[in-house]
């Protein structure tokens, strides 16, 4: 018997398949395995499958996909997996012919669980996002270079770094950060073309390889990606975040560059995009001055790490004298860091400290200085008479202020070298103190309780200096040298110094003037009533602890991010 030209047996089979598909679909919903990708998209994918030409084969394919979803548990919880499963038989054949096709993963969820290629597949893909890993991406990039060598064709490489990802992590926790990365992955996959490769390089960094894509189309794709991320809002519980991205773009068409050069160029371009204000694209050009500066910084990073490993630093000291008669018998010195290069030349901190700050090397520098200085002080204190009051000032970076283990480190050094707590005065810049106000206040209270002194350096340089001063329990105010240097000729500078000195004395603090470069300046400071002075007119910095004495000691390694300055000559 036939009905409208279709055999009854076929109609029964079609009805059974359709019914089974509906049942499995609702089982997925009951098991909380929703198909995050719209059902219509999965069906469209099946319709594009050249081997599923009849309604019977299409329904059979749909049922197969839904059954695979139902059978797989943890592997397919995320929306990315539900989308990737709907790839079809034709995709599996393409995968065998073209292993670089990023849209093939995973071709068979059951194979992921029990198949012999499971471990290989997992190794190639990031567990959190399902994107390919850095290693797999570099393999594909290397393969593209080989193809370009045989037949030149345009490629473009995007290096993407999320802006404000740390804010989400710090505010809502790592679970929120993980979810954000998964959602950004969805944006990347929806924006780039099927033939392109996208990878998670680590943390919040991604890379995209655009095949057969000249510079201008690549820039349009990057712009579309940037705009999509800009329009995206991430919501976690009751909080909403706007996320941006900085993108570096480099294009190539042959094998005249190697893999490492390409990745480095893209990373450099991304860095420049961040430095220019974030949330933008920077196209790599070999003649780019900013990229040359970036390369210079990276060279300095290597030199700094080598200097830390080999102890290629020395400490200078500069005298701080009492201006008023009551303080002229006291002896104060500030320690100043210098670096020794491979040719035994002394390098001023203004050259290497900004690089150390930017690349998180200041914590190691801070601890090296403290450990080495304490060891030298212990030797000196043993030779001095009990009546001699000697105090050394040591600069601290903003990174040290924010480290939870820094206080314990300092206490350990005092115990190890048995020097008087009152012999040490720590200096922090006003900018660093304000940026880490709560932690700076706690650290100052704790170290003052031991008997240490504290100076607030470069006071007056900030926009809200006096407003923050009452919250910081320091002992000394170091008046910013920018106001002191021209005090003899600029009435405004003199008025600023007089105001800072008066406020400091009202609060019970002593004042120190930096950058005293002429006897005339020193005389004016004495009239104003400033307590201490420091500068070239009084004494130039001199070598205090030699490179041999500054051999790398055994000390606890820091944990944290650096952000401050060890000052040069005052």
Could you walk me through the main structural features you see in this protein, from its secondary elements to its overall organization?
The protein is an alpha/beta fold and 570 residues long. It has 3 domains: 2-124, no CATH class; 134-286, 2-Layer Sandwich (Alpha-Beta Plaits); 297-545, Alpha-Beta Barrel (TIM Barrel). Helix content is 49%, strand content 18%. It is built from 23 helices and 19 strands. An 8-stranded mixed barrel has the order 10-11-13-14-15-16-17-18. Strands 4-5-3-8-9 form a 5-stranded mixed sheet, with helices on both faces. The chain has a two-stranded antiparallel ribbon with strand order 1-2. The chain is elongated, with a radius of gyration of 33 Å. The N and C termini lie far apart (103 Å). The model is unreliable at 31-37, 69-116 and 551-569 (pLDDT under 50).
